[in-house]
Batch of 2 targets.
Target 1
Amino acid sequence: MSKKPGMAQALHKVIMVGSGGVGKSALTLQFMYDEFVVDYEPTKADSYRKKVVLDGEEVQIDILDTAGQEDYAAIRDNYFRSGEGFLCVFSITEDDSFQATQEFREQILRVKNDENIPFLLVGNKSDLQDKRQVSLAEAQSRAQQWGVPYVETSAKTRENVDKVFFDLMRAIAARKAQGNQSEIGERKKKTNCCTVL
Amino acid sequence: MAATRHTLQREIFSLSDEKLLSICHVSKAYKKKKTSFLCLVSTMDIPETHVVYQVKRSSEKSALKKKQSWLLSDIHTVDGINVDSMDLEIHADKIYKWTATNPQERQNFISNLYFFSFGLPQRPDFKNIPKECMTTELSSVASTDNNSNGISADFLQSPMTASEYQPITTNKETKDLSSLMVNCYYAISNAELFMETLSKDLSVLDGENIQSVLASEPQVSQLMNDIEVAIEEATTVESQLIIYDEALGNIREAMERVGQKNQAIHLANRNARQLLEQLELVITQLTISPEHVQILNEAELPGHKDELAIAGSELLRAVSFQLPLGLDKLSAVSEQRKKLDKLRVKFSLLVARHLNNLFIHLGNDIAESASTPGNAMSTSFSSSASGTKKDFNLSSHESIQKELEPYTELMKLLRVLDSKAFVQLTKVYTKTMSTLYQRNFKTFFEDAKDSLIVGHFQQQQTHPSSKPGNSANAKGDIEAFAALTPPLCLLGNEQWSPQGEGTLLDSVLDNVLSQLQPLCLAEQAFCVKFLHLDSFLSPTTKTSQQPIRDETGSCSSGYSGVEDLCNILTTSSGSTDSTQLSRLERQVNEQVRATMSAIFPSLETELNSLISFLEKIDSLHRRKLLKWVSNIKDGIFRIIGTLNNHFVIVENFHHLHDSLARLKISVLDHERKEAKQKYQEALKAYVTRYFGRPLEKLNFFFDGVQAKVGAGVKESEISYQMAFSRQELRRVVKEYPAREVKKGLEHLYKKVEKHLCEEENLLQVVWREMQGEFIAQYTNIEKLIQRCYPDSNVTLEFTIENILEFFSEIAQSH
């Protein structure tokens, strides 16, 4: 009753992107409700919210799970715009989905107009090693080229599921703190300038 | 010269009784040697005529002879050719050109011509002649012809002679003359006699004339006198007129002044009237009748409730009256305002104090009476499941509400008149009620627990070995329950009687909830009404909003379901109650929610503890609880479905699904799926409902087309239908140029943004859905155009690329 909502509680907006059937919804549902949904049903768009403790601080995470199959890429513009961090998911068992990440990355950068947007390249379905099509090295080199971390997950076994979400939230939080600091820094600089002048 | 003149006069003109007036020695142009004289001559007889002669010598030795002559009146032009030239032209029967030998002579001649022709009825035209020549004086002639004094004296007279001669002009004169001449037939033969007769007649006439002159002298003098008198009269009149004029002049000034004054008076009058109107308005609006003042001053609550309410509204009217600009600076007005303010303070003090006391009093009173059963309104519940009577009652607050209801009007007035006091009062109410409820709930839940313990104990005693069977039965129950449509016991205020064994928990919970729910709803309804939570500009400060949902995670599963119920009910009733604009709805909802959570602070914890207690008692009963929860969910589905606001439905189903997914209760999987499905349905409904708008007319048109096709009209024949002709299509398509569509989409986005609440975070989802819907509609319309109007060349004025561009732009601008 005494708690004031919104006050001091950070809200991080995460967007799930990637081709259809790579397991975006599965990752989200595993993270949200600790469950693995076997039935596949293509998502259009769905929103989730959860309270988690991130490094000792209670924060809220908003997850926007998006459609992999979208007729028109421009429809994504709006939610890309609203996102603060992105989990770009592909399936290690499907090379096409890995190739598609390039396009998603480009669209996000174009819409956000920010090279350093918090972003994780996620290779899902790591439990299906025998069907692997995308090699670890290949994925890592792309991540390196983009300057983003690469993590392999399994929505089925829950491997690294929390990790990708928490890593991304940390990146977002750091980014926000940096933003604030640089704002303060700019202000300082400005005052300095003024005194010099 | 003079000699020449003399010679000419003597040799030529004297012979013909003529008088030489002026001469000029001229020669024919280009024949300098042959000289001649131009002579102006007048006849001696009366009336004299002037003739110009050309006189010349036919040979050197011969005498001077008249060669040509023109009557002066026959000459039409005398042309000097040039001011300084010696030439002279005379236009008569034809043009004659000469050159003078002496300029002086020439000038004089022309002057004379001019002078003598002056008296003629038909004068010649004088061209190119210096001005000084054209005078009627003949000084130059006289001065140059000093030698011929006689002549000049003669012709000086001649004009006068000419003027004395009067031609006979009238017929009468002619007649008279002829009759005179008839009488004197001898006149011609005997002029002398005639003369004599005439002079005699003349003298007679003269005499008569003189006589008549003499006779008329007195008349003349009389006339003179009369004239003098008349002149005097005229002078008097004139002086009189002057006086009048002056007087009039004075009056005019006076009149002007009067006019001005009149205008000023009118103005003053009008001003005074307006002032009076204003004053009347101000006074009537600012004055409260003395009875009301008296009531405000002396009223005592609760006796004078109604009077006070009337007086209060009167006061509100006076206080809230908007004075015309500037009038509020009047000291009388400010005084009256002060007076009103005093009354206002008094009013708010009176009402606030009384209500404050009343709240506290009621709080204490009910708390006391609650301990004695039967005093307060209570619902009793008896369960016969175990054969033991277990009563536990939750005291209703109906009596308090009844007690307070009459003050609703006063509260409303207070809210407007003194919002601070109102807020304070609200706080007091909330606090009192919350303590009261806390206490009530505590006993209530304790009773419930007691009855559980007792019942459980008894149950175990009576059926010591029934536990496993119980569990199986319960399972069966649940399955049967899932198949049937469970009765909406709680929400329909019906009692749901659980059947079979092991229903003790169910019944207790049922009892608890069935009592809690109407109580909460009643309290909410009362608060909304009494505290005017639904007002637009509610001055109530936002009391700390309890993050109800925040605690969901930490609560036990069963509890969270109940809590959801409370939550959603609050939301839903809040939004159905409020009839305001949708953007205010959320604010009102928040307020209702905040107040309710302030009033029921302990409800959640109590419920929580009850549920954990239940769990402690028997983990088996958790199953029952779940059944319970599922039942509640059903009710919620129903309730949510009845809401008017689509977006609230969408959000609530979304939230419900989320809650259910968190619970991870396998029994509820069905409900979970249902929630998800309902959420998707609601989303679809919301999207289609709000989506019709950007292309309303187009949609309408093509709905018609579709209907026709559906009714069996061939697609190729659609365009022959009146309402769906190509012109109509063109007209409709014209109404949606790309620019309009973009505007419509932006508008829609803003509206969606406004509708959806932050908490559920569905904006992106809804918007994505709308984008999809829009594109689907677009392609559908395009398809219909292609199919039904294949050769019309009509296309929508925007392309799919345009739409995507608009979406991107909207994304970028938010």
Note: The mean pLDDT of chain B is 69.
Target 2
Amino acid sequence: MGLLAMFRSKPTSASIAKERLRIIVAQERGGRGGPDYLPLLRRELLQVIHKYVNVDPEAVQINLEREAGHEVLEFSVALPEKPGA
Amino acid sequence: MTEIIVVTSGKGGVGKTTTSASLACGLARRGKRVAVIDFDIGLRNLDLIMGCERRVVYDFVNVINGECVLKQALIKDKRLETLHVLAASQTRDKDALTEEGVRRVLDELIAEEFDYIICDSPAGIEKGAHLAMYFADRAVVVVNPEVSSVRDSDRILGLLASKTHRSANGNGGVKEHLLLTRYNPRRVANGEMLSVGDIKEILGLDVIGVIPESPDVLAASNAGVPVILNDDSDAASAYDDAVARLLGEELPLRFLEEPKRGFFARVFGG
């Protein structure tokens, strides 16, 4: 079974679990320690942007970075390509 | 010097109480003076796993409220002379535990020169879990090789790094270890279960023990004899290794591979 498994093209359920966990843990660690209003801020900003541009929720990134003595809230939106451009 | 160790996990049912009981017994068997405290107020269970449920007269909350002295509430283990159990209260009052009360009890145990205080945390991230970890010097995070348990463990690691006495006072933080339970080497080999390596990589933490899935664990809880005391069990040997590592010994992890089956077993199955 062990040998056969190596040649199977389908990823194992354990490797799927690992990949999902890697992503969610990284994402949750990123938001940790930030102010509690961050998720709400993200959602509201997204709503405002949506009024003007139809962006994918995944395309909005908020990062909080701490440097010596101050914090930087970085906000980036990837705009969709213009249709027909 | 007393060391306070919290056994925690976030998720319920992963083996915190089983682990607390076995680590406490293992340390006591090596001659350490150990007190193991059940922080699961309202859902007392450590007493059952330790087999002293009929000897609980006073509990943790009684001591905090000054309804008895600590000595009256500490249950001396009948098997290991240096081991003591402090049972959780059955009260439904959520505010029975206070930071000040817990601090007083721990300080008294420290003054009594216990070597180790094991805090058996309740599941979740509410008050009981918070107070179980708050004064800890070390944390043993119990995790099953399963997605929700791994994710919850990471959440707990975040709390250990920010919501503890050590983190608040800049004492170098709580030393954290992972302890895997219900590990099934056969399923890992078949790609059906996360491996030790996977979990180490995802959580970025050292592993202090891997306890193989074993029928002996249920048998131990049925009998009220912590599994580490079963001399014929792989789970017991794995827990004993974890105790040795807690004490600073460097041992390779065992029971990570399926035991080799004999020729006849392979041919005829079973």
Note: The interface with chain A takes residues 146-147, 150-151, 154-155, 158, 162, 188-195, 198, 201-203 of chain B (CB under 8 Å).
